Inverse folding.
């Protein structure tokens, strides 16, 4: 094999944790398996003992999440099918035609598309400017001082990891009477969030990212004000107040029509125990150390540009723009040649890429998790060096077809070894 290439790794390197965490927290799979085999009965719809045990799991998970996010009562924790459903429930339940809304240019489409729909029906949406991924606080204060109905904001960018100052924005919302809806998909389980301290009316969380639980489970942590004002997005059976043909007006039933994702809730129960034992400050410190080492190794390297690194407050996400290689091809080569899993493109955040100067080509996103290691960082850096070195040796930008020929026909490509899970960290 040409010296240009690294040998295939027998164990894949997963650097796409901003999409979903992998592996899940130790104990999650076993806990969910046991729950499915012994307790997976519908809640609020039976009085036999096995179903009551399932209800206890749901109740306990609500209490754990309330404690985790600083809520005063577990009843203010509402389960949904994911963070996108939670955001839609909050946005369409609290904002209507004619209302003013403030958001930022760094949002995910989970925020942008619901607000775009509201704007089409008459809501006024204003965008806070962000320079290099850093929120312009003066612009935020000026826009929020206009007393909008709500501010809808991501806690951290899924493109570059830039963290927004939600405590400061929460103060502005409180002073101007605005509801504060926060998308913490990238920070839940990694950065400390307190809904009371940060004046958050609806904290929308994903179970499958930093919380290290399964896909298909998420939720909202609601203030009393938001719970009172918000209209349900989905109507149906709750197993309670069955004599009514309208939704009950009590929490959490008001927003939980239909059957809950009980295995998903059980996975949160197990993952929260792991997070509590490890400590989210320790998790963030480890992940950010990997990100910093990765970025330090890439600084000054020919053929790449780092996007959105200006904010000193970041989570473990790095966007790399390959100047002389199509970013989609770069991600494909990282996967097929080096078994490194990343995500390329616009990451469902077109306005963020416009703000960072990477639209429409996007970037290759490397996102680190708690189970990654310094060896993973070194392997990624070595692969990037090999790819950019190939471009330099050709002394020209490589077309897609030429780059494919160089990397895949220069030498026989062995069949990748089957995936083997890394043993969980014990330190």
């Amino acid at each position: 094999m040409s010296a240009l290439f690294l040998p295939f790794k027998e164990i894949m390197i997963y650097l796409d944790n901003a999409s979903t965490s992998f592996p899940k927290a130790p104990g999650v799979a076993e806990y969910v398996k046991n729950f499915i085999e012994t307790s997976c009965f519908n809640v609020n719809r039976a009085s036999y003992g096995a179903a009551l045990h399932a209800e206890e799991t749901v109740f306990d998970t609500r209490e754990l999440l309330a404690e985790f996010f600083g809520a005063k009562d577990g009843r203010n924790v509402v389960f949904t099918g994911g963070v996108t459903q939670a955001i839609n429930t909050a946005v369409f339940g609290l904002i209507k035609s004619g209302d003013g809304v403030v958001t930022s240019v760094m949002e995910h489409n989970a925020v942008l598309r619901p607000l775009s729909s509201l704007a089409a029906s008459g809501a006024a949406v204003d965008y806070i400017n962000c320079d290099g991924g850093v929120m312009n606080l003066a612009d935020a204060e000026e826009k929020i001082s206009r007393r909008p109905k709500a501010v809808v904001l991501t806690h951290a960018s899924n493109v570059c990891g830039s963290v927004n100052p939600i405590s400061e924005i929460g103060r502005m919302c409180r002073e101007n009477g605005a509801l504060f809806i926060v998308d913490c998909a990238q920070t839940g389980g990694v950065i400390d969030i307190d809904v009371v301290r940060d004046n958050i009316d609806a904290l929308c969380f994903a179970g499958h990212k930093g919380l290290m639980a399964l896909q298909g489970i998420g939720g909202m942590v609601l203030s009393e004000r938001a719970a009172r004002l918000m209209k349900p997005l989905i109507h149906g059976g709750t197993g309670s107040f069955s004599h009514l043909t309208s939704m009950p007006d009590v929490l959490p039933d008001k927003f939980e029509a239909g059957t809950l994702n009980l295995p998903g809730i059980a996975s949160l129960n197990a993952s929260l125990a792991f997070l509590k034992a490890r400590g989210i400050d320790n998790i963030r410190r480890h992940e950010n150390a990997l990100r910093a080492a990765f970025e330090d190794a890439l600084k000054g390297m020919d053929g790449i540009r780092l996007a959105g690194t200006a904010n000193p407050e970041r989570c473990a996400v790095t966007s790399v723009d390959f100047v002389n290689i199509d970013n989609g091809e770069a991600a494909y080569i990282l996967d097929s040649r080096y078994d490194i899993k990343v995500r390329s493109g616009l990451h469902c955040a077109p306005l963020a890429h416009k703000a960072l100067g990477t639209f429409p080509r996007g970037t290759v996103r490397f996102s680190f998790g708690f189970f990654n290691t310094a060896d993973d960082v070194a392997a990624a850096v070595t692969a990037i060096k090999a790819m950019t070195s190939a471009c330099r040796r050709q002394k020209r930008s490589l077309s897609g077809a030429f780059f494919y020929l160089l990397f895949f026909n220069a030498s026989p490509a062995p069949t990748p070894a089957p995936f083997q899970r890394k043993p969980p960290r014990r330190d």
